[in-house]
Design a protein that fits this description.
The complex is a heterodimer of chains A (294) and B (480). Chain A is 26% helix and 28% strand. With 294 residues, chain A is α/β, with parallel strands linked by helices. Chain B has 18 helices and 16 strands. Chain B is α/β, with parallel strands linked by helices and 480 residues long. In chain B, helix 2 packs antiparallel against helix 7 (114-128), helix 4 (60-68) crosses helix 7 (114-128) and helix 8 (150-161) runs parallel beside helix 17. In chain B, helix 14 links the parallel strand 8 and strand 9 (334-336). Chain B folds into three domains: 16-128, Alpha-helical ferredoxin (Fumarate Reductase Iron-sulfur Protein, Chain B, domain 2), CATH 1.10.1060.10; 142-237 and 395-461, FAD/NAD(P)-binding domain; 241-392, FAD/NAD(P)-binding domain. In chain B, the strands form four sheets. In chain B, strands 3-2-1-4-16 form a five-stranded parallel beta sheet. Chain B has a five-stranded parallel beta sheet with strand order 6-14-7-8-9. Chain B is globular and about 65 Å long. The longest helix of chain B has 19 residues, at 442-460. The interface between A and B is large, with 51 and 53 residues.
Chain lengths: 294, 480
């Protein structure tokens, strides 16, 4: 079946910059003036790269109202992100919708720790930047698997009072997890009035567990499976303080101490098998088994 | 020469055994011979009760007379005078409770198959003649229509016909609203929806997809961009859940999510398409409306071995069209009436294992006039299932309301609109369809969109002032 419709008038979503930040992470600056005019830290966009493609949410990694651009940073983890990564400067992204979700509430905080894990570091950047602009003291604690995966070091240096970068394997000379650094900072007397944690669910869970006994308000950014991103499907529902909430319209930011992380981790598995099928339909001719890129 | 048969000319259908394995359209439509034969059952009544039964007042006896004479192009022109989406309405309108319910032939035997004839004429026209846009004049006024479902399409079509510059804003990547994401391919082919929408483009309607109004622009910002009037037809897109234990287990879907994945995102062709849907061997669908039927029949086509509808009232109260329920039954969908889920049990790794239900009995009539189902003590039982689809209704999406605090809404979220003109409490802003009434039918939403188009025309030509009270008076003189 052929649809005879297409994007009309504006909204062409031209890619005007593309950088490879590390072997698995790409940064793109996209011409999207209407979205840039409204975007705030914490919000996200949904995109689609081809006519049979799926809709995936990506957090807005930066925006420039004057230039009319939205920056996205994504990891090549599934079919859609890999196809997106194949696009180059001068190409267009088929569909680009936003800004979706609620902005992070950043007013009234003075001493903040922004904690990012892996790609989460990129997602946490707009919050750190805005807090810094608002005059807050910002400690940035970001962690990666190894030295080669470190991203946005210079950007974070410009918006933080202290910047800590950890690696799981110690290859940057600072072995450990982000929670180790955060704990040390808190115990050495830094009195944060807010911790923002963005990264893998398990990391956000541990950050929330760490801050809970200290009573430090902890905001986490959820990125569950979603289709429309406008509150229509309910696929992104999560339990917060015993209530079902939709991450797309009620979030994506929530109080980390209220979230049922175990449920969120479980719901993230719903399409894991299917993703493998679409990602890697190749059956090895030698063994007859499915081959994996992992 | 009247055809005196007491029954409708049957419409060919795909065999149930065959069709549960594909997503192709179930009903195949009349041939010209069948259409002429059926059209001859119409008595051409002078008082035309059927027209009063139609929310958009299609000139039914007139078009049927042309069909009986084999003048299909003329029949099409008559239908499209008041209905811009006949191929869709001919398929999804509940004719049995509208035009056909009041057909005189229905007093003894079956009514004239008005819906099937409308569909035949629309399909014939699409196949045999290019679309001729019949816009009257060009007017120097701009109207923004929010939402491209039935209400928005009807409103946009009527305004374009009157010469207005109409821009249609759609949140999804494809226009059509519920016609694309909700109603399945086997009931309403998507190529046909797009063909009808293309007619609007040819009439000069500009369609902007990927625009979530309330997020990218507020209503005020649309006015600032030079839109002289705004119509909100954003539908009822917020899914209701049962609020029972276990509802967030893996394998529980809202009907919205399940159908959007299947219809809009084409999950039935996964992995050729990229959007999956996780369907188990045994599926339970909760609810008794058309959406529940659509979900159940889709699940069957996706390969589920057993599909069971759980409905808390009895068959008599079921809101689904009789035809849809009959089709579902033919396809092997099981119905468990007077059955209400109370909790969902999961496996160790968090997938649905079973649903625990109670039996209900019917008590006194409730506010809806239907007998209220009451739980039968000690009737709890467990039904093993892998997937559950919750199809118990939708409410209006709150995005526009949240971004427009001055807009007056009902406690349940529906926008307050005057019943004749569809005007809201904000001058120049109109609303209609499911966003006003809550989830209803395609044709009712189209009727509201048309009424709003008339009111917007009156407003922009100065026939009414922008005082909402005056709008109410003005509308009494209009044809609606």
């Amino acid at each position: 079946m052929v649809f005879s419709y297409y994007q009309e008038v504006h909204n062409v979503n031209l890619i005007i910059e593309k950088d490879i930040l590390n072997p698995a992470v790409v940064r793109m600056v996209v011409d999207a003036p209407a979205i840039a005019r409204k975007a705030e830290p914490g919000q996200f966009i949904i995109l689609r790269v081809h006519d049979e493609g799926e809709r995936i949410p990506l957090t807005i990694a930066d925006f420039d109202r004057e230039m009319g651009t939205i920056t996205i940073i994504f990891q090549l983890v599934g079919k859609t992100t890999r196809l997106l990564g194949n696009l180059n400067k001068g190409d267009h992204i088929l569909d680009f919708v936003g800004p979706l979700g609620k902005p992070t509430e950043l007013d009234g905080y003075h001493q903040v720790a922004v904690v990012g894990g892996g790609l989460g570091a990129a997602i946490a950047y707009p919050q750190a930047k805005k807090l810094h602009q608002m005059g807050a003291s910002v400690d940035v604690i970001i962690g990666f698997r190894n030295r080669d995966l470190i991203i946005l070091e210079e950007s974070f240096e410009q918006v933080s009072n202290q910047l800590f970068i950890t690696t799981d394997d110690g290859s940057n000379g600072n072995k450990g997890f982000v929670t180790d650094v955060l704990k040390k900072q808190i115990e050495s007397g830094r009195s944060y009035d807010l911790v923002i944690a963005i990264g893998p669910l398990i990391m956000m869970k541990f950050v929330a567990e760490l801050t809970r006994p200290y009573g430090i308000k902890t905001i986490v950014s959820m990125n569950p499976v979603m289709v429309d991103g406008t509150g229509m499907c309910g696929g992104c529902r999560i339990t917060v303080g015993g209530q079902t909430r939709f991450a797309c319209v009620d979030g994506p930011d929530f109080d980390g101490h209220e979230i049922d992380f175990d449920e969120a981790i479980r719901r993230q598995q719903i399409y894991k098998r299917d993703e493998k099928a679409v990602d890697d339909p190749h059956l090895c001719r030698l063994t007859g088994e499915e081959r994996s890129h992992d | 020469m009247i055809n005196r048969s007491l029954e409708k000319v049957p419409m060919p259908e795909q065999d149930p055994k065959e069709r549960v394995r594909n997503f192709n359209e179930v009903t195949l439509g009349y041939t010209p011979e069948m259409a002429i034969e059926e059209a001859r059952r119409c008595l051409q009544c002078k008082n035309k009760p059927c027209m009063d039964g139609c929310p958009v007042k299609v000139f039914i006896p007139e078009f049927i007379e042309k069909v009986a004479a084999g003048q299909f192009a003329e029949a099409y022109d008559i239908i499209t005078r008041t209905n811009s989406l006949p191929a869709i309405c001919g398929r999804v309108c509940p004719q049995e409770s509208q035009c056909e319910m009041v057909c005189v032939r229905g007093k003894k035997g079956e009514p004239v198959a008005i819906g099937r004839l409308e569909r035949f004429v629309a399909d014939w026209a699409m196949a045999h003649q290019p679309f001729k846009p019949n816009t009257e004049t060009v007017r120097n006024k701009k109207v923004a229509v929010i939402g491209s479902g039935p209400a928005g399409l009807a409103c946009a079509g009527d305004l374009a016909q009157r010469g207005y510059q109409v821009t249609l804003f759609e949140a999804f990547h494809v226009p059509g609203g519920v016609l694309m994401y909700g109603i399945p391919e086997f009931r309403l082919p998507k190529s046909l929806v797009q063909a009808e929408i293309d007619h609007l483009r040819q009439m000069g309607v500009s369609i902007l997809t990927n625009q979530v109004i309330g997020k990218i622009y507020s209503i005020d910002e649309l006015r600032d961009q030079g839109f002289d009037a705004v119509f909100i037809g954003s539908g009822a897109g917020l899914p209701l859940f049962l609020n029972i234990e276990g509802e967030n287990l893996n394998g529980v879907y809202s009907a919205n999510e399940f159908l959007t994945r299947v219809n809009l995102m084409k999950a039935y062709r996964f992995p050729q398409t990229d959007t999956p849907v996780a369907i188990g061997r045994r599926v339970a669908v909760v609810g008794g409306g058309n959406v529940a039927m659509d979900a159940a029949r889709s699940a069957k086509r996706l390969g589920a071995e057993s599909v069971t509808i759980l409905y808390r009232r009895s068959q008599a109260e079921m809101p689904a069209r009789a035809e849809e329920a009959a089709h579902a039954r033919e396809e092997g969908i099981e119905f468990r009436f007077l059955t209400n889920p109370v909790r969902i049990l999961g496996t160790e790794d968090g997938w649905v294992r079973s649903v625990v239900c109670v039996k209900m009995v019917l008590g006194e009539p409730d506010a809806s006039g239907r007998r209220r189902p009451v739980e039968e003590q000690g009737s709890e039982f467990e039904l093993p299932v892998d997937t559950i689809v919750v199809a118990i209704g939708q409410r209006p999406n709150p995005l526009i309301k949240n971004a427009t605090p001055e807009l007056e809404v009902q406690p349940w979220g529906g926008i307050v609109a005057e019943s004749q003109t569809m005007s809201t409490n904000i001058p120049g802003v109109y609303a209609g369809g499911d966003v006003v009434t809550g989830a209803a039918t395609v044709i009712k939403a189209m009727g509201a969109g048309k009424q709003a188009a008339q009111a917007i025309d009156d407003y922009l030509t100065g026939k009414t002032s922008d005082d909402p009270e005056a709008c109410i008076l003005g509308s009494e003189q209009s044809e609606f």
